[in-house]
UniProtKB/TrEMBL annotation:
Catalytic activity: Thiol-dependent hydrolysis of ester, thioester, amide, peptide and isopeptide bonds formed by the C-terminal Gly of ubiquitin (a 76-residue protein attached to proteins as an intracellular targeting signal)
Listed Polar residues bias regions: 247-260
Name used for this protein in its record: ubiquitinyl hydrolase 1
Species this protein is from: Populus davidiana
Stretches assigned to the Josephin domain: 7-186
Length: 280
């Protein structure tokens, strides 16, 4: 297990516009290491290199012209970034981003607790699941605070996301151990440092309100994400109820199985009484 980092504090960023990719990268690194301008610069650099490769390659003139005329293949006008941009940002810190269905990620499919971070993506939403000081947390920027995940729930949750169409990536390498919290760069306007106790208190407080801990309930992706959570909780509840009813059901079955025999005996006794009365 890793040593305690950042004094045991958790770094979380809440949703700002469509900057979930920025929030995702920073929560993987556990600190405000990148801004939207940093990722935009990486996207621009990738676009330049890709256009150069298309221009020098063997692609047809028509296809190359279509590609070169596009504004960007790595950042949308709304601010959504490609996985390639996230990869480049994390490579700065000597971290690798690996698709969960890659052969080298086989062990993670068996036991995800062996990893340290996952990046999850669906449509235009990114978020990070990260192990911090030996405990797993969901750092989705649509939530007011990081949400603690048990090891058992982690595996079930990742499987549920995959089954719902989410793309899952592993992050491997030497993660930064510390970020100078007291420095002037310790906050980027939407980031905050929380103790695990503070995070738990915020989550519980939000769960007690009419609208749970969601920051922006208007986004379709957050709706799908919430549905996944509710479905998993419903399945867990059904399994628990089924398990609790199993033994009583078996006992009832044994009782019901014995009942017809008793009814047959009672019927035979009644018939004997009737025959006796007729004989008299």
């Amino acid at each position: 297990m890793e040593g305690v980092s950042n004094g045991g504090m958790l770094y979380h960023e809440v949703q700002e516009a469509k900057l979930c990719a920025v929030h995702c990268v920073n929560t993987v690194l556990q600190g405000p290491f990148f801004s939207e301008f940093d990722l935009a610069a990486l996207a621009s650099d990738l676009d330049t290199k890709e256009r150069q490769m298309m221009h020098e390659g063997t692609v047809s003139a028509a296809a190359s012209g279509d590609f070169l005329s596009a504004e960007s293949h790595n950042v949308s006008l709304g601010g959504d970034f490609s996985i390639q941009v996230l990869q480049k940002a994390l490579e700065v810190w000597d971290l690798q981003v690996i698709a969960s269905d890659s052969p080298v990620a086989e062990h993670a499919q068996i036991d995800p607790d062996l990893e340290n971070a996952f990046i999850c993506h669906l449509h235009d939403h990114w978020f990070c699941i990260r192990k911090v000081n030996g405990e797993w947390y969901n750092f989705d920027s649509l939530y007011a605070a990081p949400q603690h995940l048990s090891k058992f729930y982690l595996a079930a949750y990742l499987d549920s996301l995959k089954n719902s169409g989410w793309s899952i990536f592993l992050v491997r390498g030497n993660f930064p151990k510390e970020f100078p919290i007291a420095s002037s760069e310790a906050s980027n306007g939407y980031g905050q440092w929380l103790s695990p106790e503070d995070a738990e208190r915020i989550i519980k407080s939000c769960n007690n309100t009419q609208s749970p801990q969601r920051i922006n309930s208007t986004q379709q992706d957050s709706d799908q994400y919430q549905e996944i959570l509710l479905e998993m909780e419903d399945q867990d509840m059904k399994a628990a109820i089924a398990a609790s009813l199993m033994e009583p059901s078996q006992s009832m079955s044994r009782v019901e199985t014995g009942s017809p025999q008793k009814d047959d005996e009672d019927t035979k006794d009644d018939n004997k009484d009737s025959e006796g009365k007729k004989a008299q």
